[in-house]
Amino acid sequence: EGQFERINNTVGPSVPSAPGETLCAAVSASTWVEPHAKCTVAFALAWTSPKVKFKKGKTYY
């Protein structure tokens, strides 16, 4: 359906992951667009690029 459901949206800001723990993330937005209309949704993202190692030995930065 093009959306993500939060399990608990009252927990506040996220916390850092534990050492050695690998996490993923996603960004989504909901909006209503009338037929033949347009809608713009802007996102601003910032992140670091840690080295991620997978079980099969592949490393990504």
Question: Can you put this structure into words, describing what you see?
Answer:
The protein is low in regular secondary structure. The protein has one domain (1-61). The chain has no helices and two strands. It has strands at 52-53, 59-60. Strands 1-2 form a two-stranded antiparallel sheet. β1 and β2 (59-60) form a beta hairpin. The model has no long low-confidence stretch (mean pLDDT 73).
Give me some keywords for this one.
61 residues; little secondary structure; two-stranded antiparallel sheet; 2 strands; 7% strand; elongated
Strand content: 5-15%
What structural class do the secondary elements suggest?
A: little secondary structure
Order of helices and strands: EE
| Count of domain modules | 1
Assign an overall shape: elongated
Mean pLDDT: 73
Radius of gyration: 17 Å
What characterizes the major β-sheet? 2 strands, antiparallel
Terminal Cα span:
31 Å
Number of strands: 2
GO molecular function: beta-glucosidase activity
Organism: Nymphaea colorata
Protein name: Glycosyl-hydrolase family 116 N-terminal domain-containing protein
InterPro entries: GH116_N, Non-lysos_glucosylceramidase
